[in-house]
Design a protein that fits this description.
Length: 64
């Protein structure tokens, strides 16, 4: 999965949360991916290092 797909899918899973929270979380994960790409990981590896998108969404929803 690439960065665009990841951000899109995460955004879909966060629907129902306040828009500001969604934007904040998507920006956070986008920056994390960018940081790993800067560390010379491929985009796909950078996304994979984040873990399961379902688990990330559940964690965000649970903490919001």
């Amino acid at each position: 999965m690439n960065k665009t797909e990841f951000i899109f899918e995460l955004g879909k899973r966060l629907e129902g949360l306040p828009k500001e929270d969604i934007i904040e979380k998507l920006s956070f994960y986008s920056e994390m991916i960018d940081d790993r790409i800067e560390d010379e990981y491929s985009e796909e590896d950078a996304v994979a290092m984040l873990g399961s998108i379902d688990e990330i969404a559940e964690q965000i929803i649970g903490s919001t």
